[in-house]
Specification:
Layout lengths: L1 E4 L17 E4 L7 E3 L10 E16 L20 E20 L5 E6 L2 E6 L7 E16 L17 E3 L5 E4 L6 E4 L8 E9 L11 E7 L3 H7 L6 H6 L7 E8 L8 E5 L3 E6 L4 E5 L9 E7 L1 E8 L20 E4 L43 E2 L2 H6 L1 H7 L5 H7 L5 H8 L4 H13 L3 E2 H10 L4 H7 L5
Antiparallel strand pairs: 1-2, 1-20, 2-19, 3-8, 4-5, 4-8, 5-6, 6-7, 8-10, 9-10, 11-18, 12-15, 12-19, 13-14, 13-18, 15-16, 16-17, 21-22
Helix pairs in contact: 4-7, 5-8, 6-7, 8-9
Protein name: CARD domain-containing protein
InterPro entries: CARD, DEATH-like_dom_sf
């Protein structure tokens, strides 16, 4: 559930921190949301799957009967035998109804949703079973067959974040925020100061609607704590558990504007943890440290990455603005999914001096800007082509996940992406996206890539036949 920085070396000069384990990132890869359809898919009986809520879901197919797994359901889809990926679906406060069927030759699986149809080549086998993996979010799922004679059901074997409902054709995700947990590498020491900067981190270009950093402290070495209190690392308990139950205690939960690149300072006096944010929040927590006890910092992440700087004296408290880490600082090598993997973030040794050069003041936040035509290498206008083919596009354009590829290419803003995903039916989604594409030039290469990735190549000639470069 957590990306772990790869380098294990200890660094104490600021310029070397960028290659050390100073950044941890949330990932929903092992969210526990794996479930199967126990009814085999056949060419005569297509299956209708309805998703309702907000979140990210991966759809796939396997030749392996889910009953083979019993109580050993794989953590991730890549551990499912004979698995083939079908679709990534992202929904936001809406329903998505999709039809899944085999073609008559048993060589393709066809999925239809959002006004589009997708064909996927598959290897021949005796039976095919649909796989659904909820990566994150609150998602209800329901199955329907072509008639009521033969029931369709979800398998009783599923991940820990899936709950079967009274209706065997319906399931739901238990925890909408499957979080990641990691620890600071060393015990807190008197006058140690930490500066934490957290920023939103999405899954396949989609950032959860809410994201947070929950800070706790424990009085036990992290690896021993994990062994003794393993239940606290089960995702159902990550956010719903009592956050101050004596075994670990809450310091503060940072959300929204406090997780958008603004630093937060922590200072430990030997018995008290003091927190101060750049937004003005201040808090002091008495850890009631007894003689011989040590205090460790635990971090619970959801939808974010966290970068840590450390120092002594007054360099980092109140903490200065911390420049954004370059992309290589966020390279992660492993997942924290075992006792060994729950190793802490290796950070500078508190006892050594840290040379810190305060960066220039952070400029005031600017309002979001639309992508500028001058930054587009191959700009084209689609307004005329859209107007000429408006009714056809309104019926046939598959707006999602097409819009996600546009966002990745910096063709639309995050606000525009959210506006598209917030629509509740397919026609409104297509209309909003068409309206956005009509208002300014876009990159021809970026749009063509998005069309190809979403298997809508047939729209390339339609959109670019009369475009003005």
């Amino acid at each position: 559930m957590v990306d772990r920085p790869g380098s294990s070396g200890t660094a104490w000069i600021k310029s070397k921190l960028r290659s050390s384990r100073t950044t941890a990132s949330w990932t929903p890869v092992k969210s526990g949301g794996l479930t199967f359809v126990s009814t085999p898919l056949t060419s005569e009986r297509p299956l209708t799957l309805t998703l309702d809520g907000s979140g990210a879901v991966e759809l796939g197919i396997t030749c392996t009967d889910p009953a083979c797994y019993q109580d050993r359901v794989p953590e991730t889809v890549d551990k499912i035998r004979e698995y083939s990926f079908l679709n990534d679906i992202k929904i936001h406060r809406r329903k998505c109804e999709m039809v899944i069927q085999l073609d008559d030759t048993l060589q393709e699986v066809i999925t239809s949703y959002g006004g589009g149809q997708y064909k996927h080549s598959i290897a021949p086998c005796r039976n095919y079973f649909v796989v659904v993996d909820v990566k994150f979010g609150a998602v209800d799922m329901k199955l329907e067959g072509p008639d009521g004679n033969v029931p369709v059901e979800f398998s009783e074997y599923h991940g820990p974040n899936i709950k079967l409902l009274n209706n065997p054709a319906a399931v739901t995700s238990l925890t909408k925020s499957p979080a990641s947990v990691c620890f600071y590498s060393d015990p807190l020491t008197p006058d140690l100061q930490l500066a934490l900067t957290c920023t939103p981190r999405g899954y396949q270009s989609t950032i959860p609607g809410r994201y947070y950093l929950l800070l706790r402290y424990v009085k036990m070495e992290p690896r021993q704590f994990y062994i003794r209190y393993h239940g606290k690392f089960i995702i159902q308990r990550s956010e719903s558990a009592d956050v101050s139950d004596g075994d670990w205690s809450q310091i503060e939960k940072l959300e929204k504007e406090e997780c958008t690149g603004k630093p937060v300072g922590l200072k430990f006096t030997g018995s008290v943890i003091e927190l101060r944010s750049s937004t003005g929040k201040q808090k002091s927590i008495n850890c009631n440290v007894q003689k011989g006890e040590q205090v460790w910092l635990a971090l619970e992440l959801y939808g974010i990455s966290v970068h840590i700087e450390t120092g002594n004296g007054s360099e980092l408290f109140p903490c200065p603005g911390i420049p954004e880490e370059p992309s290589e600082c966020h390279a992660m090598s492993e997942r924290c999914d075992s006792v060994e993997d729950f190793s802490d973030m290796a950070l500078p040794t508190p006892g050594r001096s840290l040379t810190v050069v305060s960066p220039p003041p952070t400029p005031p936040a600017q309002p979001p800007q639309q992508p500028q035509p001058c930054r587009i290498g191959d700009p084209v206008w689609l307004k005329d082509a859209i107007q000429k083919n408006f009714t056809f596009l309104l019926r046939n354009f598959v707006a999602t996940p097409f819009v996600d590829y546009l966002y990745e290419s910096d063709m639309i803003t995050l606000q525009e992406l959210d506006k598209v995903h917030s629509q509740t039916n397919g026609a409104d989604v297509r209309y909003v996206l068409i309206d956005i594409l009509s208002k300014r030039p876009v990159s021809k290469k970026a749009v063509e890539r998005a069309l190809k990735e979403t298997k809508q190549d047939f729209l390339i000639d339609i959109l670019f036949s009369n475009s003005k470069e």
